[in-house]
Structures are given as structure tokens and as C-alpha cells.
């Protein structure tokens, strides 16, 4: 049975006033539909529509739905935050590719209206839990929607690390880094590094080396339940870092252990009934139509 959305949060691209017109217009439309409208805490302060308040992930204000106006980067941040409280999210594309923010801006009112009328499909997308350990001390514990990347820092030296899956040693490697991606993230950095495209509903992870010094080292598909661990070896301070969904979260010193597994949280995406994964691939990646 379709959910009733009584309170909706609008989230614009981080402190970017370019979404001003779209957000104010959508807020007015939602209030016309007798819906309480709240603005996301990271949205630009000069967006001045008559909102019922600001949504804070640490506050008590609950939402029935979050609507993101921006690009996939904004969607990644907002959806990861809302996933921890089970709030579903829908995206309106003002970016470039728009794999996640799949409603075109010029169809915003029509598509949001259909969603409010119960004409939508809901998808659950898996996330990653990422921990950094050093000398039995947990230094970081965060989630990622697309991917976790161990990448080169300020130097051009290769990164040396050892990889374990469910405690079993898999390989030692020297490379520019490594990616662990969800099916959603398989069309992001992992794709550029030569990884496969996974259907977003597939229960799997992918492990993708970045420019490995051993040419036979290839991407690996894993079970979603696998736990992937990396041990950093002999790196100079500041020569490697951890990124989650494209944002650097921590610099590495050389003796850390990184643990990646499926998160207990999941993103609840609201999509239009017309949304189709393969049509999106044709459109976003420029694949040819049928001849």
C-alpha cells in the first residue's frame, strides 16, 4: 500500500543558491497539496520560502519523505544520512549524469505529483560500513552508499596493501589504490577503473584494483555478506587516504587496518513507475539504441 507523505524535507545542493527557484516552486506546490515542508540543514540560507523549519539529522523533526534537488553527489550525502532513520528519498536532477536523481527538472511537478498520488516504486539499496583500526583502536566508523576508496595522497608512490576476505588472505598488491563498491556504485568510480556494471538490486559487492602493478590483477565480484579487510604496508605518511562516496574522510599513516562490510542500514529510493535501469544506462552512458 502506498505511503502517505504528510511531511516532506527539501534538500538542495550544499549551500548552492542555484536551486533557489526550483526549491521555492516545489515548496509552494507541496503546500498547495497540504503537505508540511521542511528545508534540509545544509541547503543555502538565502533560500527564503516559508518552510516549517529546518531538518537536522540530530534533531527530532521526522519526515515521511526527502526530496533532493541537485546532482548525484548531493543525493549520495542526503540519502546516506536519511537511511539511518529509514526515511525514503527521491531525486530531482540538476546535475550531469543523474543515475540517482532521475527526475528531470522540467518534469518535476508532474512526477512528484504522481508520487504523492501513490504512483511510484520503492527500491532498497545496500550500503557499506567502513571502519579504520589502528592498534586495536577504532579511528573511524562511517557508511558509504556508492563506494569506499583507498587512494593515493599527495605523493605519486604506489600503495602497498594486503587484502583479506572473511579472514582469508587473498592477495598482496602494489597499485594506485583499491575500490570496494556496492551495485549502486558500480556505475561510478569503479566503472572508470574497469569494474563491471551490476544491477542495483543484486546482492553483491565488487573489489576493483586501481592501476595495479600486476596486470593479471582483475576486479572481483563478492557476496554481499563478505567482509573485506585491508592491511596497509610501508606507506609514507600522507601518501594514502580513505574516501567514501568521493569525499576524503581520513589520511593513512601506514599501519592501519580497514574493514568494509554490508551495512545494516539501507537507502530507500522512491522512483517513478517509468524508471528503468537499462533505459538509464542507455541514456546516461550513451549506449546505442536498437538498430
Layout of strands and helices, then pairs:
Blueprint: E1 7-12, H1 20-32, E2 36-40, E3 54-55, E4 65-70, H2 72-83, E5 89-93, E6 103-104, H3 108-116, E7 120-134, E8 137-144, E9 147-152, E10 159-165, E11 168-175, E12 177-181, H4 189-192, E13 204-210, E14 220-223, E15 228-233, E16 240-244, E17 247-252, E18 257-272, H5 277-285
How would you concisely characterize the structure shown here?
The protein is an alpha/beta fold.
Distinctive features:
5 helices, 6-stranded antiparallel β-sheet, Tumour Suppressor Smad4, 2 domains, 41% strand, Rossmann fold, 6-stranded parallel β-sheet, alpha/beta, 18 strands, elongated, 291 residues
Q: Could you explain how this protein is built, in words?
A:
With 291 residues, the chain is an alpha/beta fold. It has 2 domains: 7-119 and 273-285, Probable inorganic polyphosphate/atp-NAD kinase, domain 1 (Rossmann fold); 127-264, Tumour Suppressor Smad4. 16% of the residues lie in helices and 41% in strands. It contains 5 helices and 18 strands. The protein has helices at residues 20-32, 72-83, 108-116, 189-192, 277-285, and strands at 7-12, 36-40, 54-55, 65-70, 89-93, 103-104, 120-134, 137-144, 147-152, 159-165, 168-175, 177-181, 204-210, 220-223, 228-233, 240-244, 247-252, 257-272. The strands form 3 sheets. A 6-stranded parallel beta sheet has the order 3-2-1-4-5-6, with helices on both faces. A 6-stranded antiparallel beta sheet has the order 8-7-18-15-10-11. It has a 6-stranded antiparallel beta sheet with strand order 14-13-12-9-16-17, with no helix packed on it. α2 links the parallel β4 (65-70) and β5 (89-93).
